[in-house]
Amino acid sequence: MKYLSEFADPDLAALLLTDIAETVTRPWALMEVCGGQTHSIIRHGLDQLLPAEVELIHGPGCPVCVTPVEIIDQGLEIAERHDVIFCSFGDMLRVPGSSTDLFSVRAGGGDVRVVYSPLDALSIAEEHPSKQVVFFAVGFETTAPANAMAVHQARDRGLTNFSMLVSHVLVPPAIEAIAASPDSRVDAFLAAGHVCTVMGTAQYEPVAARYRVPIIVTGFEPLDVLDGIRRAIQQLEGGRAEVENAYPRAVRSDGNTVARAMLEEVFETTDRDWRGIGPIPMSGWRLSAAYREFDAELRFAVHDRRIEANNGCRAGEVLQGVIKPNQCEAFGVRCTPRHPMGATMVSSEGACAAYYRYRRLGEVDFDHG
Amino acid sequence: MAEGWTCPVPLRDHDRITIAHGGGGLLTDELITHLFLPAFGAAASGATPTDSAVLPFGDQRVAFTTDSYVVRPLFFPGGNIGELAVYGTVNDLAMAGAEPMALSTAFVLEEGVEVEVLGRVAQAMGEAAALAGVQLVTGDTKVVDAGLADGMYITTAGVGLVPKDVDIRPERATPGDKVILSGPIGRHGTAVLSVREGLEFGTDLQSDCAPLNGMVHAMLAARPDLHVLRDLTRGGLASGLCTIAETAQIGIRYTEATVPIPPEVQAACGFLGLDPAHVANEGTMLAIVAPDDADAVLEAMHAHDIGSHAVVIGEVTEQNPGVVVARTPLGGHRIVDRPLGEQLPRIC
Fold first, then answer.
1. Same domain assignment for residues B212 and B303
2. Shortest distance, CA B202 to any CA of chain A (angstroms)
3. A153 lies in the same domain as A30
4. Where would you tag: which of A138, A283, B208, B223 has the fewest CB atoms within 10 A of its CB?
5. Strand A267-274's sheet: what is its strand order?
6. What is the pLDDT of residues B275-286, one digit of tens each?
7. Is there a domain that residue B242 lies in?
8. How many distinct structural domains can be found in chain B?
9. B20 interaction partners in chain A (CB closer than 8 Å)
């Protein structure tokens, strides 16, 4: 199938793997930033096919995982209201807030709906004029343009019963925070391809130069990921630290200029807490002054929620590549996909959920037969 | 309910039923293990984890099963709730090797549903029963207030006789056995999703909704000693394989490249972030058979339309008891898990 099967071709994958094995001479740690890449790596078993010198660290690019508990609690509080239809992407329903999750709110009578697009939430608002319809706008730069479009259209259509709980996060400040951390073991980054489809690649140039770290814009299919790894190893072995586009079929250096203009109109950058990592300056988007009336946080006055101390979940260290998921004391014991303590164990893109399967590889004999 | 009743083993995290408890995954299992079985007590001492119970009856054995059907929308490409209600129960009987005889049909109708709609569903059930060769022998009709039943819910129960010498159960999966898949996966779930409100996407894909008992009859005629049969309904291929591996405490390994996945299913799963191995089927099954029987069973399956693409996808192993391992097309491996509950589309 176009854009799927040809980027999973086993023969081409073998060529890339051979090239990587012939190029690498010493251990390197690469961080794939995006959870979609982590998913692909685990789904296709790519990590098992790489030479031992190449270590993959699963990065913080799972939007579900980094959404702060405070904002999830805000969403839960709004979703519990009888006058509200709360719309969310499916992943968010199982993420624990400080006391409950959206699934449980729905079971308790809350009107919580899974939508595939914020524009669907807009239609629901039009169909239910007596209800307040709230869309939970979670995600990186990738999902932001559609959310911006929804708010823009809500204003155009004069919809007064639509609002958004915005928790957008931005990739470049997160990469910079990790690169700048004294604990960081990351030698090169595989940047999230679809974020760059929207935003372009220019934002990464200063980071690559300042921290002497290669940044490879990388796609999501198996060959994309392997090509990103190959180019990262080539740069590292050659002593280079450049921004390189390994996903040219979807990424131009200036990104999608129409989407960026829309984003600039609807959102403004703001400091943002990342779940498990903490505050990163100017690493998020909120609605700009012109669209503030659509901000659910203000409309429902839930902006001053604070939560209690950590429950022992070390997702933050996992997200920064400081520890492996199975080095957390709770991993696989108190914390499993069935009983997640942190969001990294919930999302199919979460490093802990992916590792939970990976950990079991120790008990599994793959070579038989 | 009596006051003061509490779960023997509290269901952690949830003090109310969530939609995921009905997803056929781990949460459904937890409900059965920690709520139903302890609450039923001695009365459920003979309950089995399979879709049909096989009960001694004189010198015969009777397979007995029941299932409720709550699909939305009621009509979808390739089928409707009435066909599902007949085929689903017929297939549960067939998976025990039974010859389905008779079904009951119980309707919970929503006030306001059009009589014409009910008529079309009922007619579809009659035609489905004729095709599957079963009688619809008794039933019940209830009506609930508008807004309570998505149009209608249907519960069917079925009985069938298990032929002498047939002994089909998950526990019989034996290292060395071959794992046969009857056809392309993911068609029913994808077809239903494609017409679900808020998610419509264009596809020619039809549900695989079909009775499997005719093909199973032919398979048994070819080789009576089939070890395990399983239809791949909720939770799909992954759930079916995992249940067998866990119940029999054997390992299963299969090669992903051998599993037929229609391009429409692959594409829909790609953009919805679903795994085709987790998507429901309604007329596709697994057979686990002794290695020497595999060719004859395959031949019998190939003679049927619904089995014309039947293929060996893997084998039962002594290694990794309770675990299903897939070899990926690139040569890596992954552990195959059941979906936890409701399928949660990924954000990006």
1. yes
2. 15
3. no
4. B223
5. A111-114, A84-88, A132-139, A162-169, A278-287, A267-274
6. 899 999 999 999
7. yes
8. 2
9. 94, 103
Residue A107 sits in the same domain as residue A77:
yes
Question: Which residue in B has a C-alpha nearest to residue A9's C-alpha?
Answer: B330
Please report, for the domain that includes residue A102, its CATH number.
Answer: 3.40.50.11740
Separation between Cα atoms, residue B107 and residue B139, nearest integer Å: 8
Domain that holds residue A38: 5-63+181-245
Q: Answer yes or no: is A59 within a domain.
A: yes
For residue A92, being part of any structural domain is answered with yes
Question: Would you call A143 and B347 a contact, using CB atoms and an 8 Å cutoff?
Answer: yes
Count up the domains in chain A and report the number: 3
Is there a domain that residue B153 lies in? Answer: yes
B146 interfacial to chain A (CB closer than 8 Å): no
pLDDT band at B343 (very low <50, low <70, confident <90, very high): low
- CB-based contact B347 A49, cutoff 8 Å: no
CB contact under 8 Å between A104 and B18, yes or no, is: yes
CATH number at residue B175: 3.90.650.10
A285 within domain boundaries: yes
Does residue B66 form part of some domain? yes
pLDDT per position as a tens digit, B115-162: 999 999 999 999 999 999 999 999 999 999 998 888 999 999 999 999
Residue A106 placed within a domain: yes
For residue B348, what pLDDT band results from cuts at 50, 70 and 90? very low
* Pair B331, B296 in one domain: yes
Neighbours of B99 (CB within 10 A): 18
| Owner of token pair 């943002």 | A272
- The chain-wide mean pLDDT, for chain A, equals 89
- According to DSSP, the β-strands at B228-231 and B285-289 are antiparallel
Beta carbons of A282 and A304 less than 8 angstroms apart = no
Which residues of chain A lie closer than 8 angstroms to B333, CB-CB?
45, 48, 361, 364, 366
A79 with A148, same domain: the answer is: yes
- Which pLDDT score, from 0 to 100, does residue A369 have? 41
Statement to judge: residues B198 and B156 lie in one domain: no
- A206 has a pLDDT exceeding 80: yes
Interface test with B, best of A114, A124, A126, A225 (most B CBs within 10 A): A114
| Cβ-defined contact of B320 to A43 (cutoff 8 Å) | no
- Contact between B18 and A143 using a beta-carbon 8 Å cutoff: no
Domain limits for position B111: 50-161
